Every structure is written in C-alpha cells, then in structure tokens.
Amino acid sequence: MTGDHTPAALIDAEIREQPAVWRRLLDSDQFAALAGQILDRRPRMVLLAARGSSDHAALYAKYLLEVILELPVGLVSPSTMTAYGAKPDLRDVLFFAISQSGGSPDLVRSAQVARSQGALTVAVTNNPGSALAEATELHADVLAGRELAVAATKTYTAQLLAMYLLVDRMRGGSGAAAALPDLADELLAREPQVAEQAQRYRFAQRLVTTARGYSYPTAREAALKLMETSYLSAQAFSGADLMHGPLAIIDAHVPVLVVVADGPGGAAMRPVLPRLTGAGADVFTVGTADAVAESTSGIILPEGVPEELSPVLEILPFQQLARHLAVARGENPDAPRGLRKVTETT
Question: ∠ CA(233), CA(104), CA(338), 5° rounding?
C-alpha cells in the first residue's frame, strides 16, 4: 500500500477494508470482559471525551448509552481539565476517552484527571500501547490495523462498532451486528452511483449535511470528511435545528446531503425533505427507499438494520463521496493540506 502514490489509493483501500475490520471486531472476545468490569462498578452516569472524527463516534455512543442503557451521558470539554485545571468529583462516573491514535495530550490528561477523581476510565483506541491506553484502567482495541490515509475511515467505523458491541454486551447481547460486514460489501459495491454524484458536486463551494437521532453523528462526520478532503465549506445540522433558521441558506446552489434511516430518527427527518426540495435544493439522501424516492438522488440502505446500528453502514457512501469528489476537484484525499495523521491538542 505504501508504495502506491496514486491519489486516493490509501483512502480507497481503507474504505474497502472496513468489512474485514468489522469481522475482526465481531470475532473479538474483549467486549464481554469489558462489559462485566463496567457493570461491576454500577456507574450512575457516563462522560465521553474525544476530538475530530472520534468526537462523532462519541456522539453516537451518547445515543447508544442514553437510549439502550438509559444512563445520563455528557460530552466532555477537555479544556476544562487541561487549560482551566478543573477537577470535578467523578465518583461513580464511567469515563470514555475515544481516540484513534491515543496520542492527543489533552485526552490523555483528561483521562488522568478523571481517574484521579474517582471515575472508571476506559480508552477506546486503535493503539493498545498508546499513552491514552496506559492512562486508563480499561482499554477497548478497535482492531482496525494501521491507517495510512490522513482522513479517518476504517478507524471511525471501527470505533462505532466497538462502542456498539460493548453497550450491547452490557444489556445482554443481541447478536444483531453479525450481518454488518456482508451488508457493507453490498453497500460499497454501489460506488459507481456515488462517483457519478461526485461529478454533480464538482464545482460546489458549500453544502449542508443533516440527519436526526442516531444518524446525526453521520451527518457531522460526512461534513468533516468533505471539508478535510475537498476543502469546501460543509455545515452539519440536526434536522430539527435546520428548521430553526439555517433553512434560510438553502437554495439551488447549496446541495444538501441527508441521512434517513429506518426508525424514529428517520421518521423525524421525513417532514424536512419536502422543505428542502421545495427550496430548490439538490438533495442526496442515504437512507430508506421511500426517502430516496422523495429526493433528487440517493443510495438506498440495506433493509432490516436496527436504527442503532445504521450509522456503521450509512457513513460508507459519504466516505466514497469524499474520495471521489476530492479527486474530481484535483486534490489528493490521502494527504489533505495542513493536516497530519495524529493531531496533538492541549
């Protein structure tokens, strides 16, 4: 892989590798043990710390923990513990630090403070030898293998699936994730449709992504991927927030990327679609067949996937879109300008 300098060769290979990564995670026995250790501590609430794409994985985990386990969950601002030196009482708190590399100093310091203040700390990384993994009591390895492209793809979905498998084990285990790798192979095979869509957006200067519920993190991650690979302005909104003012920016010159999964979140998005098409927007939807039918174009998601698992699949077409759009615009998505694989913030 490292010897191929063709633009997008790395990100292309890593997008395609995701079903194999998921199969490794599904075969892993680490989640039963982790779930048992967490349940033994009987946490009363959960805090999640992350940056970048991992922050979107944390947002997905927030939905899982609140909906499935009915625990109160908050997203941490690491600077409160680093820049401001706060030391909150975290007894009976479950603290997740989610990071692909496990090397960001602010996440390491946040985990150290959380542990010293009584929290049960868990690192979720792609590097069991990282400083973050060493700083926490427990570690979940997302088993993605080395990721060479700067833009995260396989590590992101591996984080999503790892968090799902852990939460699923904590509720007793449903086995619902077993079909995901085969469904991903099916979805990735629709790449020609995505490549065609990329040509439609070749000259776009800005776009909007939107979704609700479990799919909202997908909208945010899709926007980030497009910004960091194609250098266009992409804004992510909850479908509810979009109706509260930002809808005014939507017109025929602003494409809208929509996620409409099967479930309550998707149902809540249905009234948004006619508002978007009514504004003249080019609407590209990844979701149910009826939602795609109401849009300008789209990719239909496989049927029968629980809403809580849909984000693992639904980001795949957007990763492909980011790859093809960047190349169509003459850019190399493997090496976005000004970015490094490990971002060290304090």
Answer: 40
Cα 338 to Cα 335: distance, rounded to the nearest angstrom: 9
pLDDT in tens, 276-315: 999 999 999 999 999 999 999 999 999 999 999 999 999 9
- 17, β-bridge pairs: none
The domain total for the chain is: 2
User: For residue 107, what are the domain limits?
Assistant: 9-174
DSSP state of 179: G
- In this structure, the answer to whether residues 49 and 147 fall within a common structural domain is yes
Sign of CA pseudo-dihedral 311, 188, 123, 55: negative
Distance separating alpha carbons of residues 287 and 303, to the nearest angstrom = 10
Q: What is the per-residue burial (b if ≥16 Cβ within 10 Å, else e) of 321-336?
A: bbbbbbbbbebbbbbb
Q: Are residues 120 and 192 in the same domain?
A: no
Condensed to tens digits (0 to 9), the pLDDT of residues 191-218 reads: 999 999 999 999 999 999 999 999 999 9
Q: Are 313 and 15 in contact (CB under 8 A)?
A: no
